[in-house]
């Protein structure tokens, strides 16, 4: 399975624009961008992504709250989630992983390598899921 469709949740418009260029223009992915958790919860009913790229710190509904709400939807329970955050304390990263994220990407990120980075994370997730299901 190849990574094709990504849902990006980020409240900062300038970061959404950079991620759009990095993932659509440079990497050729299909991307749906949302400006917050509530928007993501609405979009996820019309667009089922292969991966969710989720900002950690957003107003009204932060990344962890958004992840909890997304996981309540049956079709979202196994979509890998990657947090993107400037908060890179080990304890905070572990909190995101414990909540079900498969990886944490540090801001500022490298737009030139973001697509490859997500593809690698996705392939690692798929391989682990395949190994787990065959046991």
TrEMBL record:
The keyword Phosphoprotein applies. Residues 5-122 form the Response regulatory domain. The keyword Signal does not apply. Transmembrane segments: none annotated. Gene3D superfamilies: 3.40.50.2300. Keywords: Phosphoprotein. The modification 4-aspartylphosphate is found at residue 55. This is Response regulator. It comes from Shewanella phaeophyticola.
């Amino acid at each position: 399975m190849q990574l094709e469709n990504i849902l990006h949740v980020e409240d900062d418009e300038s970061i959404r624009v950079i991620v759009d260029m990095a993932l659509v223009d440079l990497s050729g992915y299909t991307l749906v961008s949302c400006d917050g958790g509530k928007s993501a919860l609405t979009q996820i009913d019309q667009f089922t992504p292969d991966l969710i790229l989720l900002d950690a710190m957003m107003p009204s509904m932060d990344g962890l709250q958004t992840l909890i709400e997304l996981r309540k939807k049956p079709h979202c329970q196994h979509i890998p989630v990657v947090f993107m955050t400037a908060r890179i304390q080990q304890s905070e990263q572990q909190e995101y992983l414990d909540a079900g994220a498969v990886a944490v990407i540090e801001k500022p990120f490298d737009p030139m390598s973001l697509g490859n980075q997500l593809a690698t994370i996705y392939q690692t997730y798929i391989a682990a899921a395949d190994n787990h299901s065959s046991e």
